[in-house]
Amino acid sequence: MKTYKLTAFERTGKLLLEETFTAPDDKEAQSIGRKLLEENELLHQTHRLGSPEGKLLLFHP
């Protein structure tokens, strides 16, 4: 299992969500990240999901 970090921000830079979770691979992590964003109604806010290797798996400016 790998550890991934999801963050969401307002345009002002205010942190709205910071979530760390584990997933077996990048594809599953993307699915979990989208679900967390949807549950918190943050899908259209600025957000990013980073992998342990530093890859951006989800990004919305």
Features:
single chain; 61 residues; alpha+beta; 1 helix; 4 strands; globular
Structure description:
With 61 residues, this protein is of the alpha+beta class. It contains one helix and four strands. Strands 2-1-3-4 form a four-stranded antiparallel β-sheet, with helices on one face. A hairpin with a 5-residue loop joins strand 3 and strand 4. It is globular, with a radius of gyration of 11 Å. The mean pLDDT is 96.
Describe how the helices and strands are arranged:
Layout lengths: L1 E8 L5 E9 L2 H14 L6 E5 L5 E5 L1
Antiparallel strand pairs: 1-2, 1-3, 3-4
In short:
It comes from Planococcus lenghuensis. With 61 residues, this protein is of the alpha+beta class.
Give the spatial strand order of the biggest sheet: 2-1-3-4
Query: Given the C-alpha coordinates, what overall shape results?
Result: globular
Total domains: 1
Instruction: Please provide the count of β strands.
Output: 4
Percent of residues in beta strands: 35-45%
Give the termini distance in whole angstroms. Answer: 28 Å
Number of helices: 1
Protein name: YhzD-like protein
InterPro entries: YhzD
Pfam families: YhzD
Organism: Planococcus lenghuensis
